[in-house]
Design a protein that fits this description.
The protein has 128 residues and is of the alpha+beta class. It has one domain (2-123): endopeptidase fold (from Nostoc punctiforme) (Alpha-Beta Complex). The protein has two helices and seven strands. The chain is globular.
Amino acid sequence: METYLKSSGNQRGQPWCGAFVTWCLKQVGLAVPPGSGAARNWFPAAKVIYSRGMALRGPPKQGDCVGFYYANLGRIGHVGFVDRWGEDFVITVEGNTGSGGINRNGDGVYRMRRLRSQITIVSSWIPE
């Protein structure tokens, strides 16, 4: 976790899902957005390819970023990666998560099976 936090400039005790995504993309030499340690910053309009229920620029693919909306925050509060985009379910890889629900204060990096309806937004940071 410390390595992920350091890659995004986040401090110990802060949520680290965005830091995990930052670390992963930096490992393969890809650009990250300003403030990449915060989940909400992974979804600028120019990068969004899917918004709940509507593909805007083709279907999401492996490596795209998925965002989860939290009503109590009034914004995107968790980010991870698409592993496999299905008709009803999406397999994701997420840092700072755990078993059950959409957890933004978890204990590790996990592959999760999410209902597609749980996915709020998807952005693409991988050049075509």
